[in-house]
From TrEMBL:
PROSITE patterns in UniProt: DAPB (PS01298)
Official protein name in the record: 4-hydroxy-tetrahydrodipicolinate reductase
Primary location class: cytoplasm
Gene name per UniProt: dapB
Enzyme Commission number, as recorded: 1.17.1.8
Record GO cellular component, one term: cytoplasm
Amino acid sequence: MVKVVISGALGRMGTNIGRIVDEAPDMELVGGIDVREGTLFGTEVVPAAEIDAFLKEKKPDALIDFTVAAAAVENIKAAARNDVALIVGTTGFSPEQRTTIASAVEGHVPAVISSNFSVGVNIFWKLVREAARELGDYDIEVTEAHHRYKKDAPSGTAKTILEILDQELGSREKVYGRVGETERKDEIGVHVIRGGDIVGDHSVLFAGNFECIEISHRAYDRAVFAQGAVRAARWVVGREPRIYDMQDVLGL
Ligand SMILES: NC(=O)C1=CN([C@@H]2O[C@H](COP(=O)(O)OP(=O)(O)OC[C@H]3O[C@@H](n4cnc5c(N)ncnc54)[C@H](O)[C@@H]3O)[C@@H](O)[C@H]2O)C=CC1
Ligand SMILES: O=C(O)C1=N[C@H](C(=O)O)C[C@H](O)C1
């Protein structure tokens, strides 16, 4: 049995993940963390200030964190202190927060950290990498769309796309939207749409002369992210104490 605590337990992702863990025959949902008390599928949700005591009491194998960046950093440090493996889906980390996370995790606990846990997006990233290798002289535009409540922009997934493009093409200037007189050089354009209940759309356009290739992914339900996070939880327990990504979990 993999014993799981979820932080961000009362949020959109927390509740989706809670349902899957609760129904999994090989897992036990032992509780949740959020900013306030509550319940998650019959288990206790406690305020974040009590995370250390809660982890000591429940002794979970894994903590799954889908919160906000500043909160996730503290939850990650608490999990590492208490020898609990991590699955982190939270996005919007600053470079400094990433460094803090790496020193909390490396050599202490295994952690799968990914801006997108869907299988489809992990394949999409591979296709983007392949296209960038072949189409480096085409103009590139990245577009993402999400629901009106999303706190960070661009999305973590879009930032991962930009990292992949930088790895393949060298670092290019990023232009976030355009207005007024513009002259296209070899920058990468980045465009963010927020509205309604859009679950998560990402596309990369490679525009050449007389042809375009557009690679895109659309999530229709948060279940794709939640299922990936639960798959990562099964995979990570007992691994070497370092940071992994979802490509490691999927063997891509
Ligand atoms: N990697 C992936 O596949 C995915 C990542 N995300 C990311 O997950 C995060 C959460 O997304 P949603 O669930 O839509 O947001 P949400 O706002 O619905 O849920 C976040 C929850 O975290 C709670 N929270 C805030 N501070 C906390 C703390 N200190 N400790 C514990 N809980 C705390 C909030 O009260 C809220 O219930 C975002 O960063 C989002 O970008 C979302 C979907 C997929
Ligand atoms: O906040 C969301 O909803 C999502 N966030 C992730 C991101 O920032 O890339 C993944 C997914 O697109 C949904």
